[in-house]
Design brief:
Layout: H1 8-26, H2 34-50, H3 55-69, H4 76-87
Helix pairs in contact: 1-2, 1-4, 2-3, 3-4
Length: 98
């Protein structure tokens, strides 16, 4: 996609994920789920690069990342940025219960 054709929500997601990935890479502390967070952030980056992320998959990835790094307060602001970017895509369609 060219810059003018890019969905601004996708651009925001890409920026937020990139910033969190950079901050996580430079964060000195090791924690048990760091690898999980890194893998899921890579998946989010790939979805953003593809240009048309699936909302349920975005939300699932956000939950995985939040669960993996949620207790690392130094990353909270960047995690919130990713959450805000995911929320730009709106709510996933509701499934009917029968």
């Amino acid at each position: 996609m060219t810059g003018s054709d890019e969905d601004p929500r996708v651009a925001e997601l890409s920026i937020a994920v990139s910033r969190l990935r950079r901050e996580l890479a430079t964060h000195p502390a090791e924690f048990p789920d760091r690898g999980i967070a890194e893998d899921e952030l890579a998946a989010l980056a790939a979805m953003a690069a593809a240009g048309a992320p699936e909302i349920p998959r975005l939300r699932r990835s956000l939950l995985v990342v939040a669960g993996a790094i949620g207790s690392v307060s130094a990353l909270a602001a960047r995690l919130a940025d990713v959450r805000d970017a995911v929320e730009l895509f709106g709510e996933p369609p509701r499934r009917s219960r029968r």
